[in-house]
Amino acid sequence: MSAIDDLAYRFDADRPHLRAVAFHLLGSAADADDVVQSAWLKASRADPGAVENLTGWFTTITAREALDQLRARNRRAEHPLGEPSDWERTSTAATAPADDDVLLTDAVSRALVVVLDRLSPTQRVAFVLHDVFGLPFETIGDLLDRSPAAAKKLASRARQRLRADPVAESPRSRKHLQIVEAFLAASRGGDITALLQLLAPDVVRRVDRILVPHDVPGEIHGAQQVAEETRQFAHRAKAGVVLLIDGVPGIAIAPRGQLQAVLRIGIGDDQRIHSIDIVGDPDRLRTAVLTVPAAALRNSTVGRGSNDTVRTLERDGR
Questions:
Q1: 120, 41 contact by CB (below 8 A)
Q2: Which residues, including other chains, have CB under 8 Å from residue 305's CB and lie 6 or more apart?
Q3: What is the CATH class of 7-78+97-162?
Q4: Quick one: which of 154, 174, 156 has its CA closest to 166?
Q5: Staple 151 to which of 6, 11, 131, 140, CB 3.0 to 4.6 Å?
Q6: How far apart, in Å, are the Cα atoms of 259 and each of 27, 39, 111, 115, 285?
Q7: Coiled-coil intervals in this record (predicted)?
Q8: What predicted TM-score, i.e. pTM, was given to this entire model?
């Protein structure tokens, strides 16, 4: 076997890992595939020489290609999949393609892809490579042309923006999180019985007019009406992830990781849902603070699934 054949064999063995890295950095399976292919072209033209850790080398090349794309995307101020013009187009894109489902390994991975888009390119790279995939800050610093300490600080700042403070969690907020998770599950399954158990009799659903056609009312009242409408749009719920929205449990509708709307869920003292406000106005979405619940991180197998990774997410730096 020639040297290039051996290198190609090793690269193909690492391809699933490299696609996962590129996907978490870019939020698009198609973009991830393009980046991995570009990384192979770079690797095949280089001389690995005495490289001992080929996987680490491949990962660094892939991350550098993804970083270049993130920076170019920021300069163009564009999203990976374009901007749907209204809520109806969410329905056609609500189910992620099979490749995305493979890369989005669990609910926390899905949530991370949504909130990572709020970070700068360097923060996103530092966080993903260290907290999700376990690369040392020395390697990340070299990639970003920063010192290890600066790379560590970037990851710390990203962590502060991404995850909720576990100290601030209360039994009430954890209970509300469970209710929102149950509502999303019932919405996905179109389970009217479960929805009616979760909704207060006088529940109100409001929606930004930008999201719906003129024949859809901006506001509807009553558990039965809200449950029936929710069942009609179960396909949209498949693109939903549970996040904290301005510190309160809610749902982000983000097909393929692209935020299109958030559902602010109002829960009463009776532990039932009294209001659902569906927000799609770009200005309101831009100012909403989205974080991943700390409890979800504790119970998740993010990235490589190591306990060290989850612990890292729950503290401010290492």
A1: no
A2: none
A3: mainly alpha
A4: 174
A5: 140
A6: 11, 28, 10, 9, 8
A7: none
A8: 0.74
Say how many residues make up the chain.
318
Q: Which residue has better confidence, 216 or 261?
A: 261
In 130-227, DSSP assigns E strands to 199-207, 219-221
Contacts of 73 (CB under 8 A, 6+ apart): 79, 80
Cα dihedral 236/241/246/250 (nearest 10) = 60
Encode pLDDT of 244-278 as tens digits: 999 899 999 988 777 889 999 999 999 999 999 99
Rounded Cα distance between 314 and 176, Å, is 21
**Could you tell me if residue 317 is left (phi over 0), alpha (psi between -120 and 50 degrees) or otherwise beta?**
left
Amino acid, single-letter form, for residue 153: K
Q: Count other Cβ atoms within 10 Å, centred on residue 83.
A: 10
pLDDT of residue 90: 39
| CATH match of 166-300 with 3.10.20.580 | no
- Residue 278, both tokens: 């569906």
Bridge pairing between strands 273-279 and 199-207: parallel
| Cβ–Cβ < 8 Å for 56, 39 | no
